[in-house]
Specification:
The structure holds 2 protein chains of 2 kinds. Chain A is an alpha/beta fold. Chain A has helices at 2-10, 46-49, 53-63, 78-86, 116-126, 168-184, 189-196, 277-280, 289-303, 321-334, 351-358, 374-379, 386-398, 417-436, 471-484, 497-508, 514-522, 536-546, 550-554, 575-586, 603-607, and strands at residues 36-42, 68-74, 105-109, 142-146, 162-164, 202-203, 208-212, 218-223, 231-232, 260-263, 265-266, 285-286, 307-311, 338-340, 365-370, 403-410, 447-454, 490-494, 569-570. Chain A has a 6-stranded mixed beta sheet with strand order 2-1-3-4-5-6, with helices on one face. In chain A, strand 16 (403-410), helix 14 and strand 17 (447-454) form a beta-alpha-beta unit. By secondary structure, chain B is an alpha+beta fold. Chain B folds into 2 domains: 2-100, Pseudouridine synthase I, catalytic domain, N-terminal subdomain (Alpha-Beta Plaits), CATH 3.30.70; 105-213, Alpha-Beta Plaits, CATH 3.30.70. Chain B contains 4 helices and 10 strands; from the N terminus they run βαββαββαββββαβ. Chain B has helices at residues 19-33, 76-84, 120-131, 183-193; strands at residues 2-10, 49-51, 60-70, 91-98, 108-116, 137-142, 145-150, 156-163, 166-174, 199-209. In chain B, a hairpin with an 8-residue loop joins strand 2 (49-51) and strand 3 (60-70). Chain B is elongated. The chains are: A alpha/beta, B alpha+beta. The interface between A and B is medium-sized, with 22 and 25 residues.
């Protein structure tokens, strides 16, 4: 039995409870009564993957169906991987401890570009052929992927049978139902894929062929097997009625987000021009305060967690936030549950709201200012003024806070040195503000942390056409920022520009990157998002060997009339809108948020109703 | 406030729950049970509960001790059942009673384990050779770094039998607030002295005792 084999070596590895299952809330079933087995794979370690809300939702949802069994699977740490390879332990799922190669579906959630090599490594550990073309024609081992990265899945096209676009609550079950039905009829893999491609939201990459121009850009895309020319993402129309789990798997070992997460809304009204999440999750939909409270209560009771966090892109944009928080705080105070509220925006962070949350937590405050000057904030449509930032900081300092964290980006379109110096100046003005307040926290100095990421242009944003700054330019700007900071009360941190470069290539790339990813993995690349494992030199070798120029994807402006590698995928927001927004950005003019005025992104027309 | 004590087992997959993780796990178990657990009254109130002894990662046990306080009187069996209905797999409360002794009364713990080897008879000879020594010195990790200790004077072999291809050992070692010896120290010493390769299986804590061989209650 695989279990004995695993247990024989389990005490040799770090945090063994990650590899053996048996957690409270995990679901086991009698496999002789199961029609479809689904391995939900997260291409990173347990500690990270177990924090992912989407997995929790789809895990419970699938397991509600008596004859379907969804199990969890994560990337093993390097210590355990070594043992697995040495002792012929294939990658297995945590509920049954059965090898995932025996499953009907092997489903990956693609949350970030730097996890792509982990997918290949996991398939290899599982003993499943890495390339879709090498899998047998029998109807089993369907390798699928969903999540935000599949809005441009082309760099992964050779490895997957199916990409699931958009929200999975309905389409996953439709896909499994079709599989179940066709399996009973003895259908082949190809027959199943042909049928599956007819479901809205299902993209079967092998039915699409790319043709390129001499200059390297995409010329056109041809389809076969009657697959739709354009694949549209799926959305849940009524978020307030959508399935939400009443229980989570409660891990033994500490995970990154070790608490109850309750989703309050999907989509975002803001339209920050760099933000992919702000566009690919449209339209904006929210849950009612009552639903949010009911879900919080049942999850806290069933899991035993004493901390709950509200999940959304911008919690303070909930139309009923005040009532919601009042109700929630009533419950959490009575039950001694801690409530945390990430994703609060600077501009509507009112005094009364702060008064409410002051009761529940007193850690640092984080603001995403993103740009150092008002001009640049207007370019990116981050509709936050310096006055608002200062006001919020004043309220926070008066309320006893003494640490503020500010997020910025570097390398944004139209950025000049003035904008970089502006970051340091803004931070300095916050330091000065602290000392100008009479009733500031006594006995403490102020700490302003400036975290500066490198801008990564992403598909399905107005900045999808933009090039990324070269590494040399980013390094120069990083140095400029450091030189502009004059006090130790401001701490600056920034990202490795090589990581950001790989990110943009994988985000905006096409199918010619599949061999590059394969070669990089062959050379030992995995866990690329972990700085201690990131080997950019190996990636550069891979690009070289495959004859792919990384700069073509990273540092080139994509033309408006160019066929984008994701042109055949429809995330409801129109390309015309992105072009319009891109042009507006270059004139440093902002676009009001969706509640103020519809900016005509096209979602309402496609969904067939007004957003508000 | 009622001061309760529970004896519980930790077996199967639960043996991979580390002591630190067990703490978190127990907190959530109490919350799921909705028992009226007593909270500390300090600046940062939290449910009060404590384990008498830490159990090494990978060890099983059928005698772990957990102390906690309740705000109201609830029949012991009901407390046990309510906790058991929300316990993780492999963990089960055996009984609940009112605390009698102080944790400091604990002096010894008993362990059982099996040693397996391709040459059991040879290994058995090696064990007896080791046990006939006057001292068994072994390096022990302490908070201040490595320290050499002599485990022989305080080690009591209850039984050591060569049966059906494995050697079954039952031994008692000092435990509690003063000295804590782990059977791994003995196994380590045997590894250093034995000529024959072996592995230890199913290390299980089977009893917690006070002075005069009295069971800890």
């Amino acid at each position: 039995m695989l279990k004995d084999k695993i247990e024989k070596h389990l005490l040799e590895v770090q945090k063994p409870s990650r590899y053996i299952g048996g957690e409270v809330g995990s679901i086991t079933k009698d496999k002789s009564k199961i029609d479809v087995r689904f391995a939900f794979c997260f291409p990173d370690t347990y500690d990270i993957g177990m924090s992912h809300l989407g997995m929790k939702i789809l895990y419970s949802l699938t397991n509600e169906r008596e004859n379907y069994w969804c199990e969890r699977c994560f990337a093993p740490g390097l210590d355990f991987e070594k043992i697995m390879r040495k002792n012929d332990i294939p990658l297995y799922a945590l509920e049954s401890l059965d090898p995932i190669r025996d499953f009907d579906f092997i489903g990956f959630t693609m949350q970030y570009e730097l996890s792509y090599t982990n997918v290949l490594n996991m398939l290899d550990l599982a003993g499943i052929p890495i390339f879709a073309k090498d899998r047998t024609d029998s109807l089993t081992q369907i390798v699928v992927a969903g999540g935000p990265c599949v809005c441009n899945p082309e760099p992964l096209a050779d490895f997957f049978d199916i990409f699931i676009l958009g929200e999975g609550e309905e389409v996953n079950l439709e896909l499994m139902d079709l599989y179940c039905e066709m399996k009973k009829k003895g259908a082949s893999r190809l027959e199943f894929l042909k049928e599956a491609a007819q479901i809205e939201g299902i993209y079967v990459p092998q039915f699409y062929e790319f043709f390129y121009k001499e200059n390297g850009t995409v010329d056109h895309i041809e389809t076969k097997e009657n697959a739709p020319k354009i694949v549209r993402k799926r959305i849940i129309k009524n978020l307030d009625n959508v399935y939400y789990p009443e229980n989570f798997v409660v891990p033994f070992t500490e995970i990154v987000h070790d608490r109850v997460s309750v989703e309050v809304l999907r989509g975002c009204i803001r339209g920050c021009r760099f933000c992919q999440a702000g566009f690919i999750y449209r339209p904006f939909r929210e849950k009612s305060s009552d639903t949010i409270c009911t879900e919080t209560k049942s999850l806290c009771e069933n899991t035993g967690y004493d901390e709950v966090s509200l999940a959304s892109l911008s919690t303070s944009d909930h139309s009923d936030i005040y009532t919601m928080l009042t109700k929630l705080i009533d419950y959490t105070e009575k039950e001694r549950v801690n409530l945390s509220l990430p994703s609060l925006r600077v501009d509507n962070f009112s005094e009364s709201l702060l008064e409410k949350i002051k009761k529940v937590r007193k850690s640092g405050l984080t603001f995403a200012a993103e740009g150092g000057t008002q001009r640049l904030r207007d370019v990116i449509n981050k509709n936050v003024t310096e006055e608002e930032i200062m006001n919020t900081c004043r309220i926070a300092f008066q309320g006893g806070y003494s640490a503020v964290k500010l997020y910025f980006m570097m390398g944004l379109p139209t950025e000049t040195d003035e904008d970089i110096v502006g970051i340091a100046e803004l931070a300095q003005r916050i330091v000065d503000l602290f000392y100008s307040i009479e009733n500031r926290p006594k006995g403490k100095g102020v700490q302003v942390s400036v975290s500066c990421a490198t801008f990564v242009p992403k598909p399905f944003t107005p900045f999808q056409f933009e090039p990324q700054d070269t590494r040399e330019e980013i390094e120069r700007k990083q140095k400029l920022l450091l030189d502009s900071v004059k006090t130790k009360k401001i701490r600056v941190s920034y990202h490795d520009p090589n990581v950001s470069m790989l990110e943009v290539i994988l985000a905006k790339g096409d199918r010619r990157l599949c061999p590059v990813i394969y070669t990089a993995w062959k050379k030992g690349c995995k866990f690329d998002s972990w700085s201690e494992h990131f080997r950019f030199d190996k990636w550069l070798e891979a690009f070289e060997e495959c004859g792919v120029d990384p700069k073509f994807y990273a540092n080139r402006r994509f033309e408006y009339d160019e066929v984008l590698p994701w042109e055949h995928l429809d995330y409801l927001v129109s390309k015309e809108f992105f072009i319009r927004e891109n042009k507006t950005a270059h004139t440093a003019v902002t676009t009001p948020h969706c509640r103020q005025r519809c900016s005509g992104c096209g979602v309402n027309k496609k969904v067939g109703r007004e957003c508000f | 406030m009622i001061r309760l004590r529970a004896e519980f087992e930790k077996k199967g997959r639960a043996k991979y729950i580390s002591h630190l993780d067990l703490n978190r796990c127990m907190l959530r178990t109490f919350r799921r049970s909705r028992l009226p657990i007593w909270y500390t009254e300090g600046f940062n109130p939290h449910p009060y509960y404590a384990f008498a002894l830490a159990l090494s990662l990978g060890f099983e046990s059928n005698c772990e001790i957990l102390d906690f306080n309740l705000n109201e009187e609830i029949p012991f069996d009901e407390v046990r059942d309510r906790l058991n209905s929300v316990m993780p797999e492999g963990m089960r409360i055996i009984r609940v009673w009112e605390q009698k002794m102080k944790i400091t009364a604990i002096k010894e713990a008993e362990y059982c384990f099996s040693l397996v080897s391709e040459n059991v008879d040879g290994l058995f000879d090696d064990i007896n050779k080791l046990l006939s020594q006057e001292n068994i010195f072994i390096g022990k990790k302490t908070k201040k770094g490595m320290k050499t200790v002599d485990i022989k004077p305080d080690m009591k072999i209850i039984s050591c039998e060569n049966e059906s291809g494995r050697i079954n050992v039952r031994m008692r070692l000092p435990a509690g607030t003063q000295t804590n010896f782990n059977p791994n120290l003995f196994i380590e010493a045997l590894k250093n002295s034995a000529q024959i390769g072996f592995s230890a299986e199913k290390i299980t804590r089977t009893g917690i005792f006070c002075d005069d061989n009295m069971k800890f209650e």
